[in-house]
Amino acid sequence: MLTNDIKDGGGCRTVPANGEAAARTATSRPAEHPSRDEAEQSEGVEEKEQGKQSIWKRAYTTLTWTPPNCRWDPDKPPQFSMSMNVLFAFAAGFTVANLYYNHPILNLLAIDFGVRYEQVAQIPTVMQAGYAAGLLFLCPLGDLLPRRPFVCGLVGFTATLWLGLCLTSDLGTFTAISFIVAVTTVTPQLMLPLVGDLAPPSRRAAALSIVVSGLMLGVLVARVLSGTISNFVTWRAVYWMAFAIQYIIFVLLWLFMPDYPATNPGMNYFRILLDIVKMLFRHPVLVQACLAGLFCSAPFTSFWTTLTFLLADDPYNYSSLTIGLFGLIGIAGMLISPIYARTVTDRFVPHFSVLFGLACSLLGICLGTYTGTFTVAGPVLQALLMDFGNQTAQIANRSSIYSVEPKRRNGVNTAFMVATFCGQLIGTAAGNHIYAAAGWVGSGSASVGFISAAILVIVARGPWEEKWVGWRGGWSMIKKDKDSADGKTADKAMHGPNVPRDEEVGVGANEKVLQEVAAEQGHESPLRSENGSEENSKEDGIEEKKV
Questions:
Q1: Are residues 290 and 263 in the same domain?
Q2: Are residue 177 and residue 222 in the same domain, yes or no?
Q3: Where is the composition biased (Basic and acidic residues) (predicted)?
């Protein structure tokens, strides 16, 4: 090894030469401390990360905090009052309206974005696809998560993201955001099963009818508002209005929506999706309702899609504003439906109301189809009777299927809504195609076929039949138990055949079911209040059941 002798005072020492010396010196030198600037920069990054975490933590804490008037108390369950019913209907209607604001203004969107009509026509299709994805993947979480923070979170997220639709000037960005907000617009389908949980069985149909009326009303009001506002000001005013309404809904739900325990805490998400498929093999009444919903919803979307072509052409030549206001006719039928549900649906088995609703729809479609080409009275009567009949049948179907599995109501609702959504897609596609080939009479005749198929599905299985086909059990349409939702025994309607009956109504009627769910999965009882209630629950005598 090469070395250099260096004199140092009275002696000399040997050191490595050239690079070897530098290498050894570097390895023997202790690690240098970072500079002051680097330390300050590192501290600043850490503070920013902590700030971000604290912002998210504060947002989560605010979202999950429950006002005292909304907190769950197993000894005093919340009463599902009329004001709460109206709030749910308002929230459902103006949330689902997000999907339909763009329908009357597609021509204005094409002009503003500088594209062809064919390109902006993709927006409604993309939003329907997003809504379908939300139905399939988000709605089952309603059985897994507490619905109050889940619903409020989705509404808040949708409202915040909606701001992008108000500001963007790029069609691609507008379409992408439209898809995402459509996915999270499924909150009405999370609220409907909650109505089934909160409302007493004896008035469940009436409570559901009010919310479903709000839901269907939102579809029509969205078109009317959008067409009217955009006729006088810019189309962006419609989206700014929707942005404000979404935040109003968020605040109202956060202040007044009652808390309710998760019915299946800890259950595997993929197991929930698989269980939805299994339900269709276990419950004939669910399959019957899904098929009837599919065939019943197809004429609805076919009518409202092709009606624009009929009224804009000879002999009517109506303006877009007049065509938009035509949707007000359907509102009358929807306002009648809750009255019918309260006076008739709650007294008879759901089977009766489904058949009656389908008969009204069939009558309206026949009148509108075969007289609509020479008098506007035909489409007017069709809109009135078909909307009333469609809603009546849907309410009755929901009332019957919510009784099959009280622990899986969101899964049951998901199966029903996916079938209904498929019917809407079929109706839109078939209506446009047949109208182009055979005109108004041709598309209307197809709707007659759809409704006839729905009637055959209902007639094939009676109200007391336990198997897939037949009328075993009798032909009576009167409820055997007026306090139950499906007209059968209240025990079976609320809890299933093997669950003991709880004499309380409303939320209290499901109390034992919720306790059993927690016991089956080895979790703490979901009936205990979120706000430090383990000790209070023990004092109140609420204990876990073991199965």
A1: no
A2: yes
A3: 1-10, 30-51, 480-504, 535-547
> Does a structural domain hold residue 41?
no
Phi, psi of 528, deg, nearest 5: -80, 140
Final residue before a domain boundary, out of 221, 250, 267: 267
CATH number of 262's domain: 1.20.1250.20
- Name, in order, each residue with C-beta under 8 angstroms of 378's C-beta and a sequence gap of 6 or more: 367, 368, 369, 370, 371, 372
Could you give the number of structural domains in the chain?
A: 2
The torsion of the CA quartet 518, 520, 523, 525, rounded to 10 degrees, works out to 20
What distance in Å separates the CA atoms of residue 346 and residue 399, rounded to the nearest whole number?
9
pLDDT tens, position by position, 354-371: 999 999 999 999 999 999
d(CA 80, CA 195): 8
The type of residue at 410 is N
Spatial separation of the C-alpha atoms in residues 400 and 410, rounded to whole Å: 14
What number of other Cβ atoms are within 10 A of residue 200's Cβ?
19
Question: What value does the CA radius of gyration of the chain take, rounded to a whole number of Å?
Answer: 30
Residue where the block lists tokens 């299985």: 461
Task: Walk along the chain (547 residues) in steps of 10 and give the mean pLDDT of each run.
Answer: 44 46 45 52 56 67 73 73 89 92 81 80 79 85 84 93 93 93 91 81 78 84 85 90 95 89 76 85 91 91 80 79 75 73 74 90 94 90 89 84 77 85 81 84 94 94 84 74 53 40 38 45 41 42 39
Same domain, 180 and 241: yes
E strand or H helix at 5 = strand 3-8
Query: Please, what's the largest Cα pairwise distance for the chain?
Result: 125
Q: Does 54 fall in a domain?
A: no
* Residue where one domain finishes, among candidates 267, 289, 315: 267
Single out the residue of 204, 179, 196, 250 nearest to residue 487, CA to CA.
204
pTM over 0.70: no
Q: Are residues 244 and 332 in the same domain?
A: no
Residue 122, domain extent: 78-267
Per residue in 149-201, pLDDT (tens digit) is: 899 999 999 999 999 999 998 999 999 999 999 999 999 888 887 887 788 77
Residue 144 identity? L
Asked if 334 and 190 sit in the same domain, the reply is no
**Residue 138 CB neighbour total at 10 angstroms:** 20
Alpha helices (H) in 460-521, listed in sequence order: 490-495, 511-521
CA 392 to chain centroid = 20
Asked if the structure places residue 437 within a domain, the reply is yes
